Amino acid sequence: MKKFAVDLHTRVGYGTAFFLLLISYLLTLYANSELLKQARLVDRSNKIIIQMEDLLSSLKDVESSARGYLLLKDDRFLRPYENSKRLTDSLYGELHVETLGDTIIGEDLLTLRSLIDKHYQLVAFVIDDFNQHQYQLNDAQRSKSFFREEIMDHIRTIVKEIQGNEHSRLKKGLDEMTTRYRILNAVIIISLILAVALAAYGFFTYSRENKARRIADEKVAGYQEQLKQQIAELDKANKELIQVRSIEKFASTGRIARTIAHEVRNPLTNINLAVDQLETEFNSNLPSSYRMMLDMISRNSVRINQLITDLLNSTKFAELVYKKIPVNQLLDETLELARDRIDLKNITVVRNYSNDICDIAVDVERIKIAFLNIIVNALEAMEPGIGILQVRTCSKDDKCVVTITDNGPGIDPEAQSRIFEPYYTTKSKGTGLGLTNTQNIILNHNGHITLESERGKGTVFTITLDFA
Hints:
By secondary structure, the chain is α+β, with helices and mostly antiparallel strands. The protein contains 11 helices and 7 strands. Helix 1 (2-72) packs antiparallel against helix 2 and helix 5 packs antiparallel against helix 6.
């Protein structure tokens, strides 16, 4: 019963707080919409005031232009008059659009339009009459100029009335905005205070009555964290075990290769000696068919010897000449070696290099061979024109990590387990020693190489090396 009461109080507290916040939100929406409406009205009043000022300024330009022309008889003074007519029509059109439905300003604007037209007619009459009388002023022109001044005074009066009316509206709108803003703030503050108080009541009630539950949750979280750490440690140990097995497998492969080389080269030497002896004894009397067979034996003997040499080279620990070099530069130089293949197949290369990564100490030429073998395999696996080769560098656990990714067809799980074995290849013309040699070079540098691939989604090679 006690637990039920606690849960009920908690629900009531949070429910009431949510309800008050919802009301506050709705009031805020309403107030904001009203504020926006008032803001639009204020903006409209400001715009009308500025446009009326521009209209009056344009008419003043007409007066100045006409006086200058009458005094100096220079046609250049008429240009402001001509531009003013177009500007006045444009401003009046904008004012008419802004004041549609406004009966108070509408009548004043109609009167203003009539006065403006009359004003321009009088100016045009004075200029035309002045031109017809050979640039001489007369009484008719002076009379029209007098009427023009009266019309201009009337225009100023109407403009001031419209601006005064808009200033009144502007002040009223600003006052309403201020009042609504204060009311809105008061409603929000009161709602928030009540909501926070009720939420705090529900929170403290829940916390006080469910301390044991929180303690249990903390213990569960602690166990989960310990479990995560143990999983991470197991994952790290598993990776180290895989690396050790790779090294052991590589060393075992090397021992087997050396044994095979020793066992094969001894009888191979006897075969070569026997062929040389036969060629020496029957040099002139040997039929051509027999000579062809002896040549075939010699060629295949050389080929077998070369295959054994390649196998030994790909599985032995070599002496390295270390040199410090930025890994990003090393990858750029390796990609440049594969430039012809990249251009030929129109492959897109994406470099995601870490700019703050340190140098690595490697045998530059050998490590280039390792990277180049992976890059060439990736290029051969991708389709021309749509292939994307991604090369990425980063630092992880104080190690330099290089990933080379392609969007080729991927590798079958069975092939992945044998990909580094000597003479294993899925290519029709491959020797099967490229990736074996690559693994040899990486392991010689105390590094590690792994492969991740999924059919139809490409392949990712990850190489881990020590920093210099």
